[in-house]
Design a protein that fits this description.
Chain lengths: 114, 113
């Protein structure tokens, strides 16, 4: 069955440090891939998406992600984390079964140390 | 509107009561989705609308859950005879076309006591 795995439930980084959040998917074809961020009490905001083409995609707020087909991964990165980046991050795969829908990972909560 | 609007933002209900949750998608977005987010969990797909029809209801957890969409716009998710396990944040999202990313509303936090 198709699935999305975010192996890290929590990650803590110091402000100004680099960040990488991991995402692995299980899907036969090349999927559509997304990263969303959810701040406390808020809905989800789209950070970036990958459909095809260049495997390194740039998003909002200085985030980027790289699609690696050989590793079935779509990891999210940021070179220098700001305190305002503290939130929950969700990776999602767009796939077709009975219809098109996004399947989400269980999320990674990012904590930022001052 | 400018974004996806959901109401109410919070709802506390007694076990056994019926509740209705409303979603106002972005104007012109033909695809509309409902998801459920339980405490500490990811997002669980409930139902997908394309226009007014729901080609995929596979995520509705029981026949106590139903949803409709009218005028290709507003959608209502109804939960009958609520149970404590229905407590969650219910998120609505819309999209201009199926393969695009979604725009989410802020959700309705449902608490069944």
């Amino acid at each position: 069955a198709q699935s999305v795995t975010q192996p890290d439930i929590h990650i803590t980084v110091s402000e100004g440090a680099s960040l990488e959040l991991r995402c692995n998917y299980s899907y036969g074809a090349t999927p559509y891939l997304f990263w969303y961020v959810q701040s406390p009490g808020q809905g989800l905001q789209l950070l970036l998406k990958y459909f095809s083409g260049d495997t390194l995609v740039q998003g909002i707020k200085g985030f980027e992600a790289e699609f690696k087909r050989s590793q079935s991964s779509f990891n999210l990165r940021k070179p220098s984390v700001h305190w305002s980046d503290a939130a929950e991050y969700f990776c999602a795969v767009g796939l077709w079964d009975s219809s098109y829908k996004l399947i989400f990972g269980s999320g990674t909560r990012l904590l930022v140390r001052p | 509107g400018a974004g996806v609007s959901q109401s109410p933002s919070n709802k506390v209900t007694e076990k056994g009561k019926d509740v209705e949750l409303r979603c106002d998608p972005i104007s012109g977005h033909t695809a509309l989705y409902w998801y459920r987010q339980s405490l500490g969990q990811g997002l669980e797909f409930l139902i997908y609308f394309q226009g007014n029809s729901a080609p995929d209801k596979s995520g509705l957890p029981s026949d106590r859950f139903s949803a409709e969409r009218t005028g290709g716009s507003v959608s209502t998710l109804t939960i009958q005879r609520t149970q404590q396990e229905d407590s969650a944040v219910y998120l609505c999202a819309s999209s201009p076309q199926r393969e695009d990313g979604y725009t989410f509303g802020s959700g309705t936090r449902l608490t069944v006591v």
